[in-house]
Amino acid sequence: MRLVKSNLAFGAVLAVAVLLVFLGSARSLLIVAISIPVSLLSVFIILKVLGRSINIISLAGMAFAVGMVVDNSIVVLENIYRHLTMRKGVFKAAYDGASEVWGAVLASTLTTLAVFIPIVFIQEEAGQMFRDIAITISASIALSLLVSITVIPTLTTLLIRLKPGEEYQPGFFHRTLFIPVVILGKKMADVYSGVMEWILEHSPISIIFRLIILVGVGWVLWYSGQILPAKDYLPYGNNNMVFMLIEPVAGTPAKTNMRYMAEYEKKIVSMEDVNRNFLVFSQRFNGGGAIIEKNLAQGQRGEVKMAIKSGEMGREIFRIPGYRFAFAVQRPIFRSANKTFEVEITGPNMLKLKNKALNLIGKISGIEGVHSVRPEFKFGNPELRFIPRRENSALLGMGMQEIGNIIESLNAGKYLGEFNDRGEPIDFVLVQKKDGNRLGLEDYRSLPIWTSQGMMTHLGHLVDVTINTGPARIDHIGTERAIKLSVQVKKDVAMQLVIDRVDQEVLIGARNSLGQEYGLRVGGSADELASTEKSLVNSFAYAIGFIYLLLVALFSSFLRPFIVMLTVVLAISGSFLGIIWNNFYQRGNILEILKEWKVPNAEAMAADWNWVTFDILTQLGIVILAGIVVNNAILIVHQMLNNIKSGIEEREALLLSCQTRLRPIMMTVISSVFGMIPLAFGEGAGTELYRGMGTALIGGLSISTLFTLFLVPVLISLLIDMGFHTRKEDLVKESMSTPTKLMATPRVEDN
């Protein structure tokens, strides 16, 4: 909890620092930065009203939102400043600036909220985490809209004193400390304007260049599809406890188990960095845990240390004799994040199911990425079975109750009655003589028995005596008998990757060898992963549809929204590239740590390490991207329509839109990215939960913005070349005929 709070504060500081560099004025910084505490603190009221608690998940949602809540304020303030440079008075500039972008910020906010509404209703196990994140981020952004259209214009009129006709001067920092930054920014803006001016020309060379850009975008989409990360369920986390389980062979005495485990405990206690440990003994289960020093298990070095310690304990546990199954694994943070899935075998014959299960255990254990395979079925301890010979018993006049009393006396003892000794009851029990020797099979069979007819026989003549074992329980899936194998995946390997390997290398061939009355499938966490993923895909589809309808209403066109929606595909590609890059970068750091500690096979261990996994929370980040990345394209298209409505020609309106929206787009994206950096790259307890989501958001925002600045104008210009024109008369007519559209895209006075 403390770490998430610090990440939240650090992200806010980084976002404010970015704003200071861009705005260059303490007053301007105060105007925008006020949206951070106002929006985030108001979220606590909403959480209270909805009956939600303040926990690590909701705080993480705020940490993600800290860089996004300033987006609307930046767009509004930047547009107000643009009107101030036109020598308008501060009141006129505040009104015109806020009114001009009101439709864009409203659409941007609604598209973001459209993503979270379906997420709130996800019912799967991961829905609890999704719900708190969705509520906090959506509430923060909705409140930031209110702040941007009310607080920002008001503070501008209070803090900036500028009369009509006066020239607006840059901020103090832009005139002093940040002069190199201002010069660099102006150079970049000039280069971008020059490139866009050349690209938007209606000439053969510019058309060819536009087609090259489209081909480049297509290649990025194709390449990102090739590097699609393997899916995982929930983040494993980095707990400082290693859990051990040993299942002895049926019938092994508890004293023998204790002797074996005592030797193992000595080795665990002698290991470096082990703080304390515990063990549990029984006839059916042995286990325990080792707790590593907490301060040594934190950060990247701590995560590597825990992996090494878990491996050392696993190697020691495999040296224990007389076990049926054993493993040592780092304990996950979430109960369902233990990276375990089940292989389910169903059919009528338990013996055949058992033999098939034992065969599969050996094959699955050899699959790369599998940590261990544990059979869920258990055969109980050896037991004596006395099966009556009814014909022989009847001939000798012996009933089943009499035979049962004899057998009971030989084993547990037979209760005969109660004797009252001076008011104190004493139980009389007939038991076998305790001479330290147990009866064997032949002893039972040759035991002399006197019948009620006065004849002597032996117990073996009355019953068949055998030793046998049977299943401790029989599982069912539906109405069919089933045996389950629990497959533990290595911590740093994606579960979906191992599931695919097991299915392709083992299960496909095994299904062919089984009869039609037998079934073989993957279940457990694999089903939960598929179910949650399906819910996310449905949420993503609903969000995309709702966003498209909003854009159709905003742009009064069914074609322009497709251009904006293309940025979502680019964002998904960017998130994949971000995950791949972060893993590649972190593997280098991990390799240095392993070499420093002189770990054997350091290169192979680092190469297989997935610092960022494509788990459900990471996939949630991609869904969130759909509502965020469209905002930049909305700004460009919306401003172009406003320019056309003001009487500017289409191509000139598009070029002017790109020039005027470059600065606010860069400010919003960079502030959002910097606000998420602590969650994506921070170290400490809990950071591994949201590392993937932060990486996906940063990668998606960065790549999508880079291509949006070029791709959206290129596509619009190609539509113009193809004859799809937008005229001032059409926009004015639409605004007059639709009252709601007047609010969405207010008319801007000519200046």
Q: Quick recap of the structure?
A:
This protein has 751 residues and is of the alpha+beta class.
Strand content: 5-15%
- Principal-axis shape: elongated
Rg measurement, Å: 36 Å
Output the number of helix runs: 27
Output mean pLDDT. Answer: 81
Stated plainly, the CATH topology of the largest domain is called Multidrug efflux transporter AcrB transmembrane fold
Helix content estimate? 55-70%
Uncertain spans? 736-751
Question: How many strands, which pairing sense, and closed or not: the largest β-sheet?
Answer: 5 strands, antiparallel
Q: What is the highest CATH level, the class of the largest domain?
A: Mainly Alpha
Structural class by sheet pairing and helices: alpha+beta
CATH superfamily of the largest domain: Multidrug efflux transporter AcrB transmembrane domain
Oligomer: single chain
Q: How many beta strands in the DSSP annotation?
A: 15
CATH architecture name of the largest domain = Up-down Bundle
- Counting structural domains, the number is 3
N→C terminal distance: 52 Å
